[in-house]
């Protein structure tokens, strides 16, 4: 309880990925354990740290989640496939985070056309700033200028991002960065409050 208000957290379950295949052996147990707090599955589609070589795991996770009425959230840095292919795999309500990263297969490759098309289909475009660890400000700026601003601004606070600026990192810093690179104040507040 926080000042008489119950805080109800929501959970994303992360299926294991081995040899370019999603492993759901523990997923159902976790879904049962957390019950209606589970809103989706998250996958780290990052070939630099995980055993992924093509879109197979994302398709498997989307199929599994959507059959259960769950959404999918995809960490999009270091993907082994172009952003367009990844976004075309996601459905309405699914989330792509770290959309404006600066690694290979980033959103700027096709001038943000795949991001705009996905947003029109209902895929949620999340900034996932992470203290500049997972976002390239120049690409974010180009995205905003191209009409592909993030619909959601999230901080993605981790041990690495929280202390990147000496412990001065948080949601208001993320909002300020988005405003400084071109989002209007109204867009920033909407992407930080009502849309999420």
* Euclidean distance between termini CA atoms: 22 Å
Largest sheet: 5 strands, parallel
**SSE-based structural type:** alpha/beta
Q: Order of strands side by side in the largest beta sheet?
A: 1-4-5-6-7
Low-pLDDT residue intervals, each spanning 5 or more residues? none
Mean pLDDT across every amino acid position: 91
Number of strands: 7
* Continuous helix count: 8
SSE order: EEEHEHEHEHEHHHH
Element layout with pairings:
Elements: E1 11-13, E2 16-18, E3 21-23, H1 27-34, E4 38-44, H2 56-67, E5 71-75, H3 83-89, E6 95-97, H4 113-121, E7 124-125, H5 137-145, H6 159-162, H7 171-180, H8 185-192
Sum up the structure in keywords:
5-stranded parallel sheet, 196 residues, 7 strands
In words, what does this structure look like?
With 196 residues, this protein is of the alpha/beta class. 34% of the residues lie in helices and 13% in strands. The chain contains 8 helices and 7 strands, in the order βββαβαβαβαβαααα. The chain has helices spanning 27-34, 56-67, 83-89, 113-121, 137-145, 159-162, 171-180, 185-192, and strands spanning 11-13, 16-18, 21-23, 38-44, 71-75, 95-97, 124-125. The strands form 2 sheets. It has a 5-stranded parallel sheet with strand order 1-4-5-6-7. A two-stranded antiparallel ribbon has the order 2-3. α3 packs parallel to α4 (113-121) and α7 runs antiparallel to α8 (185-192). The protein is globular, with a radius of gyration of 17 Å. The mean pLDDT is 91.
């Amino acid at each position: 309880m926080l000042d008489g208000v119950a805080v109800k957290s929501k959970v994303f379950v992360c299926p294991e990925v081995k040899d370019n295949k999603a492993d759901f052996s523990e997923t159902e147990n976790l879904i049962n354990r957390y019950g209606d707090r589970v809103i989706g599955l998250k996958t780290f589609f990052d070939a630099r740290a995980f055993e992924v070589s093509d879109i197979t795991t994302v398709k498997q996770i989307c199929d599994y989640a959507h059959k259960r009425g769950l959404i999918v959230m995809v960490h999009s840095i270091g993907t082994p496939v172009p952003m367009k292919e990844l976004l075309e795999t996601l459905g309405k309500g699914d989330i792509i985070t770290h959309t404006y990263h600066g690694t290979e297969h980033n959103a700027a490759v096709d001038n943000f056309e795949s991001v705009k098309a996905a947003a029109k289909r209902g895929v949620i475009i999340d900034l996932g700033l992470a203290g500049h660890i997972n976002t390239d400000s120049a690409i974010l700026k180009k995205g905003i200028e191209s009409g592909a601003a993030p619909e959601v601004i999230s901080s993605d606070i981790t041990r690495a991002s929280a202390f990147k600026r000496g412990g001065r990192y948080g949601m208001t810093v993320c909002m300020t960065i988005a405003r400084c690179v071109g989002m209007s104040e109204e867009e920033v507040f909407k992407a930080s409050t009502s849309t999420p």
